[in-house]
Amino acid sequence: MNSLLHSSTPLLPFPPPAYNSLAATSTGKLPNTTLRILANTTSERKSKGKTDDYHSTLKALNSKGRFPRKSLGQHYMVNDSVNEELIAAGNVKEGDIVLEIGPGTGSLTDMLVNAGATVLAIEKDPYMASLVSERFPDIERVKVLEEDFTKCHIRSHMSSILSCKSPTDGNSPYAKVVANIPFNISTEVVKQLLPMGDIFSEVILLLQDEAALRLVDSSLKSSEYRPINIFVNFYSDPEYKIKVSRTSFFPQPKVDAAVVAFKLKKPADYPRVSSIKSFFSLVNCAFNEKRKMLRKSLQHVCPAPDIEAALCAIDLPPTTRRTHSR
């Protein structure tokens, strides 16, 4: 289904995450001054009764001599309450099989395991993959793969795990996705996972707040409506759950985030179209040149008379452009 977004115009602008002024040393380790500042911040937050994971996150990073890498869009979660919200949104329970993308230091992984789930964690950064593996050395319910999610064969990995699940254990035959993903791969993750309703029942993601709001917008009158909205609603029922403050991350990005839940549709429940590939090809053509009349934009997909007849059937004139509104 990657044909959805072949337009030259970005559909969901996810700019590279902005990093704060805290700098890494030439060795990549967290500077001692940084550790002291954040340790004091941790104490202040705890004294105010706020749940956080600053200490364990910083300790884990420093143990590997690592600093979050901008090229990988790494922003680590330092607020356990957000992880709890992610797990609650996915209704994770004992016996569930969960895919986690970008486990970082393993704070969310730990909560998933404590909830009774079996976790497949995919981590591109070899240092962080090693850290998570070392954190759960004797737990069979945690498997860490050092791979780039955007290039791995996730269907093959998940099918293998699900095939080992007993059909009589009383649990769902489907897996779930619960992840705090790098913002810069959000579109790719959504494109890859949502068409997999035969594998996953739910996809719970932490996304940039502004992008999350646009992604779940199903209003045809919205100026922000894009092919990605059609894609999302074709394959799922999306729901905006909660807004997450940027202060919940380290390093702190310049934008807030949000938890979004996608309840995936099973293939039998997809909208009825003769060909999914042709349908999205038509959608892309319709959106590519918004100033052209639709009968011109879609002429490579179907004959102009057919387009005019379709427009007439929904009470639109044959001169309709994409910017037309009733």
TrEMBL record:
It comes from the Eukaryota. Coiled coil: none annotated. The keyword Repeat does not apply. CDD domains: AdoMet_MTases (cd02440). Residues 82-266 form the Ribosomal RNA adenine methylase transferase N-terminal domain. The keyword Repeat does not apply. InterPro entries: KsgA/Erm (IPR001737), rRNA_Ade_diMease-like_C (IPR023165), rRNA_Ade_Mease_Trfase_CS (IPR020596), rRNA_Ade_methylase_Trfase_N (IPR020598), rRNA_adenine_dimethylase (IPR011530), SAM-dependent_MTases_sf (IPR029063). Pfam families: RrnaAD (PF00398). S-adenosyl-L-methionine binds at residues 75, 77, 102, 123, 148, 180. Its EC number is 2.1.1.-. Keywords: Methyltransferase, RNA-binding, rRNA processing, S-adenosyl-L-methionine, Transferase. One of its GO terms (molecular function) is rRNA (adenine-N6,N6-)-dimethyltransferase activity. Gene3D superfamilies: Ribosomal RNA adenine dimethylase-like, domain 2 (1.10.8.100), Vaccinia Virus protein VP39 (3.40.50.150). SUPFAM superfamilies: S-adenosyl-L-methionine-dependent methyltransferases. It is an enzyme of class 2 (transferase). SMART domains: rADc (SM00650). Belongs to the class I-like SAM-binding methyltransferase superfamily. rRNA adenine N(6)-methyltransferase family. This is rRNA adenine N(6)-methyltransferase. It comes from Castilleja foliolosa. The lineage of its organism: Eukaryota, Viridiplantae, Streptophyta, Embryophyta, Tracheophyta.
